[in-house]
């Protein structure tokens, strides 16, 4: 097979364009984020032609990425599985040697290795929300992060909300599955629900809608709750808000990773996920669920509010320690 030279950036652009019609925008964003690290590694290694890639170099990348990202086995597997798909695409355009993808290794997960532990802890969530309350009150990021933490909803559900889905009198949000007008939600019709919100959240939503929300409609004539000047905020934009405002330097002014805050690449909005401490919307959801459980919410109530089964909560979301769970069970001893 005769290889045709291609640089990493061009190859990634071609790959993303090719997948654009095959996968959801959320998947495309995830692949772009993961593969940006591979492009970064190529640049550091001076690899400007992917024809140079070999099985040994792919193993070197795996080890570098594990250390660079401080990855758990589950996260490492996710990263390397995406790289394998990318390399298989590169084979199809004569950019790398045939069957190189089979040499891209990733961990074999067993038991709890398959559980992702990243979540936003209560103290950090309160620190971030206090900062937003004080310095960026009723901004889109303030509304988004508040909703994700307090309602435990997925970013897709937040993205799907319209202004009319908010009822200030009954203090609730209606989550709807509307695939025909661009906002499907996970679990489809089974994911539709009413979500009660507190006085404080209602006040924030009222102020956002009245004073700061852009007066726009989306391409279907709907009034998105989380809006930009162009219309409904893309889910990628909402994820960017989470990565941006969960960087510790935003709320505290300090970097726990001893990075130079004048040159840190994570200062750029588009690369905020490069901060080791920034987290995705899912980490806010997981943190909110764990916080509710620690506040002794019944598992059934959390399940219905977050639209996730109790068994999935127990396996993937509940991050209480064994001692915390034991102490909460202690209250039932008097009834035995």
Automatic annotation (TrEMBL):
PROSITE patterns in the cross-refs: CB, TYR_RECOMBINASE
Annotated Tyr recombinase domain residues: 115-330
Coiled coil regions in record: none
Keyword Membrane: no
One term of GO molecular function: DNA binding
UniProt entry keywords in alphabetical sequence: DNA integration, DNA recombination, DNA-binding
Domain Core-binding (CB) stretches: 6-91
One GO term of the biological process aspect: DNA integration
Transmembrane segments: none
Protein's recorded name: Integrase domain-containing protein SAM domain-containing protein
InterPro entries according to UniProt: CB, DNA_brk_join_enz, Integrase-like_cat_sf, Integrase_catalytic, Integrase_recombinase_N, Tyrosine_recombinase_XerCD
